[in-house]
Write a structure and sequence with these properties.
Distance between the termini: 45 Å
Oligomer: single chain
CATH topology: Rossmann fold
CATH architecture: 3-Layer(aba) Sandwich
Strand content: 15-25%
CATH class: Alpha Beta
Helix content: 40-55%
Number of strands: 7
Shape: globular
CATH superfamily: NAD(P)-binding Rossmann-like Domain
Mean pLDDT: 88
Length: 244
């Protein structure tokens, strides 16, 4: 029986993906900050789900992740779905730093722990949910877009490192567009996708072990054109959303 661990499964995309893998017959380990939410999800399939309270910004996160791996009896696929972000046009320093603590510091904590675990057990599949926001620097959300670019690059580097060391580790960088989760705080965004649709697309990408998966095809086209915009023009585009 295959085993997946999802960090950031208390709500949103991670929560929906956890339910899909339970339906697929996998053993599922879920982790997040809110233990009551983990218990609620576990109640749907207690024989298939193991839980662990975990905060990626805390120093004890790696130890707690190993505890969850032991509860599950091992791990074949790891998915990091934990991340934060918000518009910050006024450049509130606390918001920028808090975003970096989760999306960079916490990201490093989890991915290095998993990389080293898969190294010891002769392979596995390491997947992360980043964002299309890493394509270009967004003036309305500087730390968010910058940390997502960091995540893209970090997974590129881990992939190369695994090949250098001849490790049997697969990597998937999942890059959704705007998804209707609590992260968007009820703002109105174009091409807004429902979380259930996004979760299904992600599971398909993971099944195929795609190296990079932009969710969905509309955003794949958008990213293509974003990359084609000259920097001098990009810096003059007022990309923001102030609608409530």
């Amino acid at each position: 029986m295959k085993r997946i661990i999802i960090v950031g499964a208390t709500s949103g995309i991670g929560y929906e993906i956890a339910k899909l893998y339970v339906d697929k017959g996998w053993l599922v380990g879920i982790a997040g900050r809110r233990e009551e939410a983990l218990l609620e999800l576990q109640s749907h399939a207690p024989e298939r789900i193991q839980i662990q309270q975990l905060d990626v910004t805390a120093n004890d996160a790696p130890q707690k992740l190993h505890t969850l791996i032991e509860k599950l009896g091992g791990m074949d696929l790891f998915l990091l779905s934990s991340g934060i972000g918000s518009q910050n046009i006024k450049l509130n320093t606390d918001i920028e730093i808090h975003t970096a603590q989760t999306n960079v510091e916490g990201f490093i904590r989890m991915t290095t722990t998993v990389f080293n675990y898969f190294k010891t057990v002769d392979g596995g599949h390491l997947a992360v949910i980043s964002s299309i926001a890493g394509t270009k620097g967004l003036g309305s959300a500087p730390a968010y877009s910058a940390t997502k670019r960091f995540q893209n690059t970090y997974i590129d580097a881990l992939t190369q490192l695994a090949r250098m060391e001849k490790l049997n580790i697969h990597f998937t960088d999942i890059r959704p567009g705007f998804v209707a989760t609590a992260l968007l705080k009820n703002r109105k965004y174009p091409l807004l996708m429902q979380v259930e649709h996004v979760a299904k697309c992600i599971v398909k990408a993971l099944d195929k072990k795609k190296r990079v998966a932009v969710i969905d095809f509309r955003y794949a086209l958008l990213v293509f054109f974003w990359r084609a915009i000259p920097q001098i023009l990009w810096e003059r585009l007022p990309i923001r959303n102030d609608q409530k």
